[in-house]
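Input chain follows. Return structure tokens only.
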Amino acid sequence: MAFKCVSQKVAQAIDVELMSSSGGFSIDQLMELAGLSVAQAVQKSFDTKKNPNVLICVGPGNNGGDGLVAARHLYHFGFKPSLYYPKQPEKDLYQRLVVQCKNLNVPIYKELEQAGDNLVDKSDIILDALFGFSFQGEVRDPYKEIVGIFEKTSKPIVSVDIPSGWNVESGPTEHVKFQPQVLVSLTVPKQCVSHFKGKHHFVGGRFVPPSLAEKFKFDVPVYPGADQVVEMNL
């Protein structure tokens, strides 16, 4: 299935349009749809019995919020999620998502090392929900360590929207070159997808109205059944 990719500028304009008075979506709605799409992509890519333990690496912004929502859905899908969330914003939206995870007894950690064990070593899958398409520059602490682990680990990585630390348009950088096994593009694929060499590329954008896709000149793929994601040809 062929697909069009968009630039950072267009991706930002699409989000603004979705959350405008004419688009009608709230940030909460979009985050819920994104997190559900990510969780469904994980469910389609991995067996809960063989790979139950999912470490969700949560960033400080909306990409991290998508990860928090995904954690809740993964729990209900039969996985065992845990959160590495080193920098937790005080904004009400993120606090409520944390409460939802706590109510499911999802472990939440601010440090990678726990009682002599590294959280990555105890996981079967890593969900990269650190930075989205607005990220620019070099990865800094406290996220530099975990992105360094992404570069070296043999554990499968699932990246939310773009691999964290990549340039949204030109892909891997001098400092961040890791390749996730699964990429979940949200709303519409970004230009860096052309550098993705993993196994599965999903798009989660079943909420996009045809008028918006027409305005920004991209196609909404056909989603099978009741699925919130569709796998694209690489």
